[in-house]
From TrEMBL:
Organism: Methylomonas rosea
Record PROSITE patterns: GIY_YIG, UVR, UVRC
CDD domains: GIY-YIG_UvrC_Cho
Record key words, sorted: Cytoplasm, DNA damage, DNA excision, DNA repair, Excision nuclease, SOS response
Protein's name in the database: UvrABC system protein C
Gene: uvrC
The organism's taxonomic lineage, starting at the top: Bacteria, Pseudomonadati, Pseudomonadota, Gammaproteobacteria, Methylococcales
Amino acid sequence: MTETQPVDFDAKTFLKTLTQRPGIYKMLDEKGEIIYIGKAKNLKNRVSSYFRSQNASPKQQAMVAKVAGIEVTVTHTEGEALLLESQQIKRHKPRYNISLRDDKSYPYVFISSFHDFPQLTFHRGAKKRRGKYFGPYPSASAVKETLKLLQKIFPVRQCEDSYYSARSRPCLQHQIERCTAPCVGLISKEQYASDVENTILFLEGQGGLLIDRLVGKMEAAAAQLEFEQAAAYRDQIARLRAVLEKHCVEGEKGDVDIVACAAKSGAACVQVFFIRNGQHLGNRQFFPKIGDENQPEEILQAFIAQYYLDKTLPHELIVSHALPESALVAEVLAEQAKHAVAIANNVRGERMKWLQMAMTNADSALNARLADRQGLQGRFISLQQELGCETTPSRLECFDISHTQGEQTVASCVVFDREGPVKSDYRRFNIEGITAGDDYAAIHQAVFRRFSRLKNGEHPAPDILLIDGGKGQVAEAEKALAELEINDVMIVGVAKGPDRKAGMEKIILVGNRQPLDVTPGAAALLLIQQIRDEAHRFAITGHRQRRGKVNKQSVLEDIAGLGPKRRQVLLKQFGGLQGVSSAGVDALASIDGISRQLAQRIYDTFHHQDGH
């Protein structure tokens, strides 16, 4: 059940109508925007406390002063309210809530189970393929490090299927003893299966059992006078012991996350150490958005509730501060995970060492963040001074255009706030229907499309719109905003200086005949360069992706007898154009619908190109 109050909110009247059941409440400002979301065991008592408290904090007083309406959703239990609150905060990110910005999917190590010779590889996203998934790992680099270590110990193939199926002789990985070349039959299924089984044992945290097995095989080989094989096992055991010493956590056998928080000066850092099957997979840091007065235990509870909403939960969380509602959070997490989840903060021995390490990392990362923020704040203040703004800007957007001789034009829009890049708000636009190479028309189209979405309420307006270009580009951006009747955004052009040297940019303002006379060495210039370079990078990346798709299509489209369906099948079977180009005639002809004559034409096309 949801109740929505009108904008002319009468607090006294509304409080009389509130239920004493559990639920969540959303506080709205006069524009109807959500400024705070909370949960309550008793909605009437909790919401009333905001308006009756004599000792409210300055933050709470400021928030209540802005309340023009409240929406209430009643739930069956307090646990349901906590879950709904976390979901809504994550979705809306209200101004006065603690909210988590980072929401990337996490990578895994994957071993397939649908191959005769299984593949060991990096995986991110939905777990649709048949096989075993190990993780999550805190970053792609942590997965790649693990794969690199595994390749040295157990030479299970890590190549893509398209590359594997197209091989006619062993690749470099076999020559450097990182693969046993199952692609050309240099290892039996039984021997390969043994390597796969050992890899799984390692990833499942069964390092001790694995070493015992390898020691047994080494002794058996030596007893049979197979000294070369025994030496191979000896080296494998030595490499395995070195890895286990580095990654294994003493006394841990299962899945544990260690979560530590540091908070000061209106900022916070949460460090998460990932331990899976008794092995430390790495750590990751987060900087949730908080208010000035939030305590570490409040931040931790909000972080945990939001972060673990859609992630695989370990059986235990070790936290740096006791959560205000630890039992309730554990109950909700257990319901999500379908298994018990313990939350502990009073730990000893080896666990205390790891917790202290996480706390030290959180504190160190927060200090570095505050130093960076102070520098960034100074750049924003400098920008205000140089541009003559009445207030310090809080949101900047910058546009750039990228193309190759006018083809496959892509416009980028990047966003910065006072904490740095806001990557979730970045956008690219494929520019269509303009004369090739017309950067003015491209800027006009991109700005119009971006700010049309702003008019629809899809994103907030920037204080300053930066355009990578001179007077012509600035004029087109101005026209686009005028067509949309948007007149409260400052437009600034950033024209390249002599020889494109950094620090020599010319700053163009609407209505000014001459470039702005910027103070030499001003911190504002560093901020402008930073956002302009980021827009340029983002535009080039988008253009290359678009150009790559076109090139991929055009090369195959030139081959007689290769229609759209067969092109799609080829690209899918070989994992892209590179796989097709490296495939032999036999491999190409093995695809349904590809005759040997057509396979030869495809092969000749790429062979001819390689000759040039």
